[in-house]
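User: Sequence recovery, please. Input:
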């Protein structure tokens, strides 16, 4: 089984003015495509792993053959993270906040949606270099905030991603340049809370 680059669920310019068309083209067609190509290249060395779902490979990374473990971590993590990330974004300029069960759990866990946003933003801005900020679900069902370096996936820690933000510079530098804080603020305008709730369930 060869992994394939999934299509964006919307047009390249659908997230304007918050995330620009050129960034989406490069982020999806170049960066994500490279993760897929490098993952497939690595799995050719270990045919026994080639039909294993990427989630399984990441969840049991320590059991992955040493010859491909780093590639699965970096390129497999990059592929899975981005495959989720495209759906964690959605076009729209209207007020945007979680509803239903997810909203209730966020309020229970963090006190309020604004408090959650403040802590999430602090985590995203505190990542040195490249990585991701995540809201995740623990095996107990509880929510928590975590960050991961590079393309590490929360699945490697036994955690289920609910919503995440890519803070690699390639995700925002063309539009926001060195202003990561502006990018994080714009993220809330396009965050797809309906998809996040589907992951929670």
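Assistant: Recovered sequence (201 residues):
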């Amino acid at each position: 089984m060869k992994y394939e680059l999934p299509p964006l669920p919307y047009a390249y310019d659908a997230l304007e003015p918050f995330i620009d068309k050129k960034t989406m083209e490069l982020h999806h067609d170049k960066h994500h495509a490279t993760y897929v190509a490098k993952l497939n290249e690595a799995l050719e060395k270990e045919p026994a792993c080639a039909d294993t779902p990427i989630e399984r490979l990441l969840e049991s990374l320590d059991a992955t053959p040493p010859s491909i473990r780093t590639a699965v971590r970096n390129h497999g993590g990059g592929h899975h993270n981005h495959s989720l990330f495209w759906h964690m974004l959605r076009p729209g300029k209207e007020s945007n906040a979680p509803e239903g069960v997810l909203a209730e759990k966020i309020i229970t866990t963090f006190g309020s949606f604004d408090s959650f946003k403040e802590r999430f933003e602090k985590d995203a801005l505190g990542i040195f270099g490249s990585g991701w900020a995540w809201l995740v679900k623990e095996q107990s069902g509880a929510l928590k905030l975590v960050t991961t370096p590079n393309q590490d996936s929360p699945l490697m820690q036994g955690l289920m991603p609910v919503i995440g933000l890519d803070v690699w510079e390639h995700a925002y530098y063309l539009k926001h340049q060195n202003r990561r804080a502006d990018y994080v603020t714009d993220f809330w305008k396009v965050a797809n809370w309906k998809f996040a709730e589907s992951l929670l369930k």
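The chain has a mean pLDDT of 95.
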